[in-house]
Design brief:
The structure is a single chain. By secondary structure, this protein is mainly alpha-helical. The chain has a two-stranded antiparallel ribbon with strand order 1-3. The longest helix has 26 residues, at 126-151. Helix 10 (226-237) packs across helix 15 (376-391). The protein has 21 helices and eight strands. It starts with 33 loop residues before the first helix and ends in a 13-residue tail after the last helix.
Length: 521
């Protein structure tokens, strides 16, 4: 059986990842030994930068994270026929995107393991040792959390790879979550309140991510003790960040704002493909374009129309979505799109576009915009959801209403919608808060995970409503314009709770076989 070994190269390069003006500096004459790398503060800082480097690779947050979780989230369409299986929740084990995303995520884990193994014996200052360990635990916990939610139980690699531990079986989901919680609790203890390196996580980021871990573990179950654990972690973060006007939040040139909790730092050297994925081609939104954006990741017509019906005139729609039309050639030409444009045969113009986080600086493929992985509005919505479960809606309104008020007040004069919530039953709140997350966080890669943590029944209900939407195009002239119809059976919904475990890992790990594949694949 063919084998591969994941080598940890990230620590070998001193890379500055935190500014659009950063440059890559690498000593290429020879690679330093581990002793030299960890000899002093400069070496440890370089090793720590290496831990982040895998996150901004093409196979993780630069591209494949969006390809996998935006496409298969259920609220976003992908207009490329290459992703028809994925957007219909029928991803197969040999899918190249999940295979390489899984593999590269483990290089980040390997770099963190290397740092944690060597840091105590390094020549770094004590304060840097503490912070570096905190950041490594934070990153390892975050990557394992991404993977366990997508693939289930994982090989838990916690030490550097050697010939003795190259093959490792899958741990249980419970064991994987125990490690994630341990990592994030350690990070919360070690990280400073303010990280001296801009864009790096602080202790509140660890608490916020722990809250998301606990709300995931609650699994939509009434009476779960994890709801209170989520509340406790959210309250560690409450008031430490602030909601900002939508125009400021959605401006891709604003980095690490007062709302951002965890933000993936891109640069001119290592850029993001987000704008390439969402912007219309040949439009005035990217006036300097030398290579047309793809505009593939598009809001589904069902979620867009449901949102507009729920909140007519919501500033989040006006500021965050391109619909009806857009201009090109300096305003000389207008292109009609959904809902102003419809077709029975199908067309790429049959869906709205995302505008939020679209970078007008786009020239070709990459921009130095960051990716916001977790922001304060998400924490407030988690706090509202968990509080409803523990104490009922009356105590939960205050948190969701802060998010709604920010949306209203982002317009001048303030908009009437989205109006504050009141008068709901616990069950009504439970349903509405999930759709509120779909609206507020549309396209931010939270939908894939949110759709699943309420269980297969909730996802099946969503699928049915989506499939029944009257604006869908059931028989397009080309598979390029195919709607993401779902096979609405409870068996398919249960199968879709997890992605398939990647064939790439099964074939390269002698401790894992086809018998260890996820249910239904």
């Amino acid at each position: 059986m063919k084998k591969f070994i994941i080598y940890s190269f990230g620590f070998l390069s001193a890379i500055t990842l935190f500014s659009c003006d950063s440059i890559l500096e690498e000593e290429t004459d020879s690679f330093p030994s581990a002793g030299v790398t960890y000899a002093d503060d400069n070496g440890v800082e370089a090793a720590l930068a290496g831990c982040y480097h895998g996150l901004i690779s093409y196979n993780v947050f630069q591209s494949d994270y969006h390809t996998i979780f935006c496409t298969a989230g259920g609220t976003m369409n992908n207009t490329s026929s290459s992703y028809n299986d994925s957007k219909a929740q029928r991803t197969e084990p040999d899918n190249k995107y999940i295979g390489r995303h899984f593999k590269t995520s483990y290089t980040v884990i390997a770099d963190c393991n290397d740092l944690l193994d060597k840091i105590d014996g390094s020549g770094a200052s004590e304060s840097l040792k503490i912070r570096a360990k905190g950041e490594a635990h934070m990153l390892r916990g975050m990557v394992y959390f991404n993977l366990v939610r997508a693939f289930g139980g994982l090989p838990l690699r916690l030490t550097p790879i050697t010939s003795n531990n190259l093959d490792m079986p899958r741990s249980s989901v419970e064991e994987t979550y125990e490690q994630i919680i341990s990592d994030l609790e350690e990070a919360a203890e070690l990280l400073p309140e303010v990280n001296p390196v801009e864009g790096r996580p602080n202790r509140y980021a660890a608490h916020a991510l722990l809250a998301k871990v606990y709300i995931t573990l609650a699994n939509g179950e009434e009476g779960s003790p994890y709801w209170q654990k989520c509340i406790d972690e959210c309250m560690q973060v409450y008031g430490k960040y602030q909601l900002i006007p939508l125009q400021e939040l959605y401006n891709a040139q604003n980095r690490n704002t007062a709302e951002s909790i965890i933000e993936i730092q891109f640069s001119d050297i290592n850029g993001s493909t987000w704008t390439q994925g969402i912007a219309p081609d040949v439009s005035d939104f990217t006036p300097n374009s030398a290579s047309n954006p793809y505009g593939r990741y598009r809001p589904s017509k069902y979620i867009f129309d449901t949102w507009r019906a729920q909140y007519p005139g919501d500033p989040r729609i006006e500021e965050g979505i391109i619909y009806n039309s857009y201009t090109k050639n300096g305003g000389a030409e207008t292109v009609k799109i959904y809902p102003a444009y419809t077709s029975e045969k199908g067309s790429s113009r049959m869906w709205p576009y995302l505008k939020k986080f679209l970078d007008t600086r786009y020239v070709a493929q990459y921009t130095c915009q960051n990716f916001i992985y977790l922001r304060y509005a998400d924490v407030l919505l988690m706090l509202a959801e968990a509080t409803n479960e523990v104490s009922g809606p009356d105590k939960a309104y205050q948190y969701v209403n802060q998010v709604l008020a920010r949306a209203r007040n982002s317009a001048t004069p303030a908009a009437a919608e989205p109006a504050d919530w009141s008068g709901m039953t616990k069950q009504e709140f439970r349903h509405r808060i999930m759709y509120e997350r779909f609206f507020e966080l549309l396209g931010e890669e939270t939908e894939y995970f949110d759709m699943r943590r309420r269980g297969p029944e909730f996802m099946l209900e969503y699928w049915k409503a989506h499939n029944a939407h009257p604006a869908n195009c059931p028989k397009p002239s080309s598979t390029k314009y195919k709607e993401d119809y779902f096979e609405c059976t409870i068996e398919m919904a249960r199968r879709a709770m997890l992605l398939p475990f990647p064939t790439l890992e099964i074939n390269s790990n002698n401790a894992i076989s086809d018998a260890d594949q996820n249910p239904g694949y």
